[in-house]
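lol so apparently i was supposed to do this last week
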Amino acid sequence: MKEVHIIGGGLAGSEAAYQLAKRNHKVILHEMRPTKYSEAHNTPNLGELVCSNSLKSESLTNSKGLFKEEMRQFDSLILNAAESTRLKAGQALAVDRDLFSKKITETLESHPLITIKREEIKTMPEGPVIVATGPLTSSSLKEAIEKYFDETTLYFYDAMAPIIAQDSIDMNICYKKNRWEDDMLGDYINCPMNKEEYDHFFSQLLEGDTAVLRDFETHLFDGCMPIEGMANRGKDTLRFGPLKPVGLRRDETHKPYAVIQLRKDNAAETLYNMVGFQTRLKFPEQKKLVHSIPGLENAEIVRYGQMHRNTYMPSPKYLNPAFQTYKDPLVFFAGQITGVEGYVESSASGMIAAINMDRVLRDKPVVFFPEVTMLGALSGYISRASKDNFQPMNANFGLLPSPEEKMKKDIKRKFYRDRSLNAIKAFKEMLYEQ
Ligand SMILES: Cc1cc2nc3c(=O)[nH]c(=O)nc-3n(C[C@H](O)[C@H](O)[C@H](O)COP(=O)(O)OP(=O)(O)OC[C@H]3O[C@@H](n4cnc5c(N)ncnc54)[C@H](O)[C@@H]3O)c2cc1C
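anyway here it is w/ flavin-adenine dinucleotide bound
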C-alpha cells in the first residue's frame, strides 16, 4: 500500500487521517503547528476549534443535526471526540474545546498506521495526497496551490452577506424582478420599503452591536465595506448604493423609497443572498435587522453574514463531489479550503475525501453521496455551484431537492430527515458490500 499524505491536521485533515487508517492505509499527517501558527490557532493540538465550542444542533429535523447523524454512520472521529467531551448545552452539541482536541490528538498519535510530522508544507506534494490546510492556509502553500491550478484561484474572501431560505420569504410583499427589466421573472427578489420602513431599518442598523474584530482581521476590510459602515457615512448612502430603488418598481404606480435585493444563490433557487449586505453585526442583531425588513419578518437565515479571512478555491472548476481533483485522481482537497463552511462540514469533507481516496487506492471508482442526503447535497454544491461566483456554503436544508408536493415547514423537515436517513443507510450498505 502507498502512503497517503495529508496536509493540515485541522478538523478535515484529522478526520481524513482517521478514516484512511481505519481502512488500513499508512498515513503521514503534516501539521505546521507548533513550528508555525495561523492567525487563529493557539495550541499544538490537532482538530483545534478556532472560535466557538459548539458543533450546533443535535435535532434530526434541523439540517445540522441531520448532517451529524449521517456522519455518525461512518464512525466519525470528530463526532466520537465530541461525544466524549460534550458539555450540557440544550439541543446543541457543545464540547470542552481543550479536551476535544486533545482526544483527537491522542487518537491519531497512538494509531500505529499514522505518522504525524510537525512541519509546514510549502509546495504541492505528489499524490496520493489530501490537502486540508483550511481557511488560513500558509501563504507559501497557497501560492503553490495557485500555481498547481495554473491560475490565480484562491480567494481571500473577507465579507459575507446573510443567506435566506427562499420558502421563508413573504412573496405577497416581495417580488421578482431584475433592475430595468419589464417582466417579473428576474433572478432577484426585491423587498421594497417606504420611507417610514427605511427610517426604522436604518436606525436599527446604526444601533446594532458589531462583533469585535480580531487584530489580524482589521486590515482586510478596506475594499469591502460592511453595510453598517456604509450606513455610518450618511442616511442616504445606502439608498444610492446597494438599496437604490430605481428600475425596480413593481408597476407604474409603485414608488419604493429603498429596495433590498436578494440574489439567487443556488441553481434550485431555494437560497437567496442579500445583495451588498456583508456585515459584522452580531448574529442576534443581524436576525433582528433582517426580520425588520418588510417581507422578511419570518425569514430563515441559513447563513449569517461574517467577515474574516477565508482562503478557498473555486471548487466547481476543480473538484468532483468526491473532493477529488479532475486534474489528478490521487489528489484530493478537503475542509474549508474547498468552500464548505463550518467545523462539522469541514470534518465531513475530510471523511468523504478519505472514503474515496481509499477506493482509488483499491482501483475502485469514486462514489458520490446521494443528493437527498445532507452530505451529498453539500458535496454536490461544492462541485456543481456557479464556477464564476462560487461562495462558501454550510449544511442547510435549502441544498436538498424539494419534495414534489407542497408541505408545511415542520412536515417538510421530517420528510427530509426520513428520506435522508433511509438513503444514507442504503448507501452505506452499498459501500461496504463493494
Ligand atoms: C477566525 C475563524 C473563526 C471561525 N469560527 C467558526 C465557528 O465558530 N464555528 C464554525 O463552525 N466554523 C468556524 N470557522 C470556519 C471553519 O469551520 C474552521 O475554520 C474550521 O477549523 C475549518 O476546518 P479545516 O480542517 O478546513 O481547517 P483548520 O481546522 O484550520 O485546519 C487546517 C490546518 O492546516 C494547518 N496548515 C495550514 N497551512 C499549512 C501548511 N502549509 N503545512 C502544514 N499545515 C498547514 C493549520 O495549522 C491547521 O491546523 C471559523 C473560521 C475562522 C477563520
